[in-house]
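Example record

One chain of 105 residues, shown exactly as stored in the release files.
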Amino acid sequence: MKVKLSYSIDIDEVPNEINRLLDKARVLLGDIQDDLNESKYMPGAGLKLVEDLDALRKSMLSLDVELENTINIILGYSQVLLEQQTQARTAQAPAQVPTGEEAGE
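Predicted structure tokens for this chain:
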């Protein structure tokens, strides 16, 4: 059974965390590829191959979950950066004073 975890890190550490998750996914993908490359049907060992292939499927599911988590972190991080840029632009924009018709004259 999988459970969803959340944790907080400093915003400056998010790119490092994304890269750490990508490295983890690369290792998992490499392990999956290695295991698949070693898989071969042998008479009398079909049940073992079925078990191995099932384990590979579960590993691929874990990889999918890792990649989905990474995507969600990237999207959330991008949203925070966009909000920060918008706030910075708003803070830098000069205040507009209504004149003429805008002031209700």
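Notes: The CA atoms of residues 40 and 46 lie 9 Å apart.
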